[in-house]
Amino acid sequence: MRVGVVQFCPLFGGVGRNIAKAVSLVRQAEKADLWVLPELFATGYQFCDRGEVLALSEDTSGPTIDTMVRKAAELGCWFCGGFPERSGRRVYNSAFLVGPDGLEAVYRKVHLFGREKELFMPGDLGFAVHTVAGVRVGMMICFDWLFPESARTLMLGGAQVLLHPSNLVLPHCPDAMKTRALENRVFTVTANRTGSESRVPGETLTYIGQSVIWTPRGEALLRLGVEEERAAAVEVDVRLAAEKRVTPYNDLVKDRRCEFYRSE
Ligand code: ACM
Fold first, then answer.
1. Which is the most buried residue in 6, 23, 57, 148, by most CB within 10 A?
2. What's domain 2-260's superfamily in CATH?
3. Which of 77, 80, 142, 173 is catalytic?
C-alpha cells in the first residue's frame, strides 16, 4: 500500500479554499492509495467559541465529506481527515475515512485537548478498525497520541496502519509516535498542519509540522519540515505489522500481563 500525508496551513473558516489547497497538493505528489490530512483540515483549529464551532460543523452528509468522496473517486484513492462533526446540537472533533464509493467510517476524538473540552463533546464511538485496499487501518486524532491505550486498542483490534490527523502544538509527538509504532509493531501516519493561529486573545497556537510515517521497526519512512507545505507518500509493507515477536521468546501481544495492568 502507498500511504501519504498532506501537510499545509489551513486558513481559518476557508473551507472551500482549504479543501482545494489539500487536493492540489495531492495532485502534485506521486500517487498513493490513502492520504491522511490534518485534524480539522478544512475549517482551521482555533475556534473562538461554540457558536463558531456550530457554524462550521457539518454532518456526515455535509459538503466536506461529499467533496472528499468526489475527489477520492476522481483520484482513485482514499482520504482520512479531520472535521467538526455535527450530530443534532452536539459537535465532535472527528475524522472521516472516505473512498471512491463513499464514507467508510467516522472516528470521534476520545481525548480532547485544552479548550476543545469547552467546544466539543468527547468522542463516544471508541477505536475501530476498517479495511482499505485489503489493509486494516484505525483512526486516532492528535492528542490521542499521549494516551498509549489509543494505539494499543487499535493494534489489539487488528490495525496494521494507524491514521493520525493532527494539529500538534506540543513538541514531542512526532518523535513519540516512534514508540507507539514500536510498542505495537504497526505503521503510524501522523499528518500535521503548519502555521499559527491567534484568534483568541492571549492564545497563539503555533503548529509544529513534521508530519511523519514510522514503520513497526521504528524507521521514519518520511518526515516533513516544520513549515513545509507538501503532500508526500511512501510504500508501506504491511506484512511487517503482522510480526509481533520481538525475540524468539517474546511476543508483544502474548507477553502482556493484563492481570497487573488494572489500577482502578
Ligand atoms: C491537539 O490535540 N490538537 C493538540
1. 6
2. Carbon-nitrogen hydrolase (3.60.110.10)
3. 142
Mutate to test the pocket of ligand 1, among 169, 190, 197, 205 (most ligand atoms within 8 A of CB): 169
Active site residue 21: no
Grid coordinates representing 136 are 486494516
Give the start-to-end residue ranges of the domains of the chain.
Answer: 2-260
Q: Which atom of ligand 1 is nearest to the CA of 169?
A: 4
Q: What is the pLDDT of residues 37-87, one digit of tens each?
A: 999 999 999 999 999 999 999 999 999 999 999 999 999 999 999 999 999
Global pTM value: 0.98
DSSP state, residue 201: T
142 part of the active site? yes
In the block, which residue shows the cell 472521516? 96
Q: Catalytic site residue 254?
A: no
